Amino acid sequence: MVLYFKEMLRKHRDVMPYALVGGGVAFLDLILFYFFVDILLLDYLVVNFFGFLFGTALNYLLCIKLIFKSGVRFNKPTEVLLILILNITTLLASQGLIFLLIEVSGISPFFSKLLTISLLFLWNYTMRKYFVFKRSAF
Fold first, then answer.
1. Pairwise CA distance, residues 71 & 42, whole Å
2. pLDDT for 54-87, tens place per residue?
3. Is the CB of residue 17 less than 8 Å from the CB of residue 66?
4. Cα distances (Å, whole numbers) of residue 102 to 27, 86, 87, 92, 96
5. Do the beta carbons of residue 37 and residue 102 sit within 8 Å?
6. How far apart are CA 112 and CA 11, in angstroms?
7. All residues at 6 or more sequence positions from 119 whose CB lies less than 8 Å from its CB, including other chains
8. DSSP per residue, 55-72
9. Taking 90 as the threshold, does the pLDDT of residue 111 lie above it?
10. C or N: which end of the chain has fewer Cβ atoms within 10 Å?
11. Residue 125 domain-assigned?
């Protein structure tokens, strides 16, 4: 059991830096979402869309600088295409989840966004680590 735990820590040693980078970007996205939706009363799907684009760009730049090795598994154009596909998939999931949580479940926009970010974190980390980048910078 101890060996299994050590192997899991070794294999996922970059999850903590990813959580810090992703968490920082997600926090900024959440604050901006709150401001534009709850204070300025803009449409939550429009705000989520633009916040997602901003957060995705910032997250990608920080991840290739601090966490994952860019260009190791794929050449740069292929890597960018894969990130684009991943981000479109995540954006569709984010828009769908937020809509369902707000319109069907009646959860507030802020908590819907928070829950959506939390649910999609693991998906993003897993896809980036194992599908796009493969190896970490650590």
1. 39
2. 998 998 888 888 888 788 888 889 988 998 899 9
3. yes
4. 20, 24, 22, 15, 10
5. no
6. 31
7. 97
8. HHHHHHHHHHHHTBPTTS
9. yes
10. N
11. yes
Q: Which letter does DSSP use for residue 69 in this model?
A: P
CB contact at 8 A, 80 and 114? no
What is the spatial distance between Cα 49 and Cα 32, in angstroms, rounded to a whole number?
12
Cα 113 to Cα 99: distance, rounded to the nearest angstrom: 10
The residue whose two tokens read 């995705």 is 56
Q: Structural domain of residue 90, as residue ranges?
A: 18-64+72-133
What is the reported pTM?
A: 0.81
- List CB contacts of 90: < 8 A, sequence separation 6 or more: 52, 56, 120, 123, 124
Domain presence at residue 7: no
Neighbours of 85 (CB within 10 A): 13
Cα–Cα distance measured from residue 83 to residue 37, given in angstroms and rounded to the nearest whole number: 27
Dig out the tokens for 70 from the structure: 């860019």
Name 49's Cβ contacts closer than 8 Å, sequence gap at least 6: 91, 95
| Gap between the Cα atoms of 114 and 110, Å rounded | 6
